[in-house]
What does this fold into?
Amino acid sequence: MLAAVCFGVLLLAALVSLWPGDFSPGEELISPGAEDIAVSQEDTMYPTSDRLRFDGGPEVVYVYLRVENLATYGDLEGRVGLMSRTSALGRLLGGGGGLVVENEGEERLAVSYGGASGVVKFAVRPEAGGRLPSGDYTVAVYAASGGAGESSAVARKYFVVGSRHG
It folds into this structure.
């Protein structure tokens, strides 16, 4: 009986630790060369407006990073994280599916003595196609920092897909 109670307490603790905490949509410009980071469903040079919420599960969300004199030693890379708002048990069993961040087209960066300037665009989409699952998304853009495979964060964008109570 004691073992069953202990197992129940451990399972409850695991489920609570997976429950989403306070998530606040917005952005974080980390590198001195990062000027702006925006997300949109628009496939354009740079969006006319920045969105922090996407209802209805879009098939793709574009992330635009604008830099000015960014000191970089290599390509910029995007990475995505998702905190799904499916049931805690679903998250425990791997709910949320795979997501990919793809560099879209040619980088529009001009490189000079002062660093790289321009816009880089990434597309966030489900690995298997379809629509993006509901949840709290974090997209981070990293730049190679010169070391063997080392990279450092340039900027992060936090946004929501679906309803906050879904």
